[in-house]
Amino acid sequence: MTPSARLSAAIEVLADIEARRRPAPDALKDWGLAHRFAGSKDRAAIASLVYDALRRRASAAYIMGEGSPRAVLLGSLVLARGLDAAAIAALCTGERFAPEPLSAEEARRLADPDLSDAPAAIAGDFPDWLAEDLSAAFGDRLVEEMQALAARAPIDIRTNTLKTERARLQPLLAHLNPEPTHHAPTGLRFSAGEDGRGPTLQVTPEFLKGLFEIQDEGSQVVAALVGVAPGMQVVDLCAGGGGKTLELAALMDNSGQVFATDADVRRLAPIHDRLTRAGVRNVQVRTPKGRGDEPLADLTGKIDLVLVDAPCTGIGTWRRNPDTKWRVRPGALDERMKEQDLVLDRAAKLVKKGGRIGYITCSVLPRENDARVAAFLERHPGFVSVDPGELLALAPDTLSERDDLISPAGLGLQLSPLRTGTDGFYCAVLERSR
Ligand SMILES: C[S@@+](CC[C@H](N)C(=O)[O-])C[C@H]1O[C@@H](n2cnc3c(N)ncnc32)[C@H](O)[C@@H]1O
Q1: Which CATH topology does 156-213 take?
Q2: Is 262 marked within a binding site?
């Protein structure tokens, strides 16, 4: 396919997403099935155009003066890819599969993309209804923070230290140009190429041998801050597919015990293969046997550390999942907050005296973060929150002096693309004092 034909295809996919309110991956898959002549490079390039357009949907519509799929796509070529009006006009020839030529109005707007008077929700590309929450999170750096969350994300991996070390892994992947991550001690980072796509790491022999896991650097950092150590009895209460379980096992050097579970058995299912591939030997998976089953009943009051990698809106991962930002609704936020309270209450039962809960979200909203911790402390007077200064002391050297990472109500730490070059992650630790 020509670059112009890919633009037309991306406009078609954006129209489908809008008309049928579909998740972007589903719409892209359908397009691929209906256009089997398109090769994998074409499909990847179209996906990248669609994701760039979704990342900048509000600002692209603003500079173009309208929100049609074509306008958003054209606007995003300027905002996300730095193309100028002449380059875009050269792609929009109207010939064969190319988009129609630019109108005079489109050409004028593309030549002068001005966001200086745009409201914060437009300049920062986020839904209006979240303005208050996000202002509470970021104060006068709101627009800068949100623009960083609307940029493309690199791909990070975590070296599986049960099998190798970063200095040995990096040369094996040298053909893909990884750089050591700035903060996480065992991470490597791959930049996205010109088209916004990173390397397909899952097909490398090193991945298949379990030498690394794909995991954002922020996720790597927060899981290491909750104070896990070899020999501990640990519960990973929201283990899902096991991303953090694998990191816990590595940090514990395969000693002690991790009990991994999740309310959703389908999400938990892939964990078994991942544990095997990674050479993990200290994890017991506890799969619930139907609704209402408590597979951890025998562990009440016995656990040193319960990791709560809580269900959340995922706003901190908007760089990677830009369509979710336009689909998240206030009702979903309310639901997630209820689940967060429930899962924290469940964790409280498991912790022994002097033991801890590590509460993690990939959100930047204080209502999912500090406010949930504060509400938990109200409900559970036997717990205290660990001073975030102590968490910083455990952090890699590059972060240990970063008081600016302390969350707005001072109960935890907040990472973000602007602050730490990672996804947006929150982390707080609660200790059982009696
Ligand atoms: C952020 S995801 C976990 C991701 C996972 N830890 C990883 O690193 O790949 C949150 C998980 O919480 C689970 N969950 C929601 N409510 C729960 C509950 N009450 N108890 C246990 N798990 C719950 C969801 O099914 C979901 O898999």
Answers
A1: Alpha-Beta Plaits (3.30.70)
A2: yes
Q: What angle do CA 117, 144, 125 make, to 5 degrees?
A: 65
pTM above 0.90, yes or no: yes
Tell me which of 3.60.20.10, 3.20.20.100, 1.50.10.100, 3.40.50.150 is the CATH number of domain 217-432. 3.40.50.150
- The catalytically annotated residue of 92, 238, 312, 362 is 362
Atom of ligand 1 nearest to the CA of 268: 27
For the chain, what are the domain ranges? 3-118, 156-213, 217-432
**Which of 373, 382, 351, 365 minimizes the C-alpha distance to 416?**
365
Render pLDDT for 281-334 as a digit per residue (tens, 0 to 9): 999 999 999 888 899 999 999 999 999 999 999 999 999 999 999 999 999 999
Atom in ligand 1 nearest the alpha carbon of residue 314? 1
Two tokens, residue 311: 């269900």
Q: How far apart are CA 189 and CA 170, in angstroms?
A: 10
Residue 312 is a catalytic residue: no
Q: Which amino acids bring their CB within 6 angstroms of ligand 1? A: 237-244, 262-264, 267, 309, 311, 339, 342-343, 346
Q: ipTM of the predicted structure? A: 0.99
Query: What would the pLDDT profile of 122-175 be if each residue is shown by its tens digit?
Result: 999 999 999 999 999 999 999 999 999 999 999 999 999 999 999 999 999 999
423 assigned to a ligand binding site: no
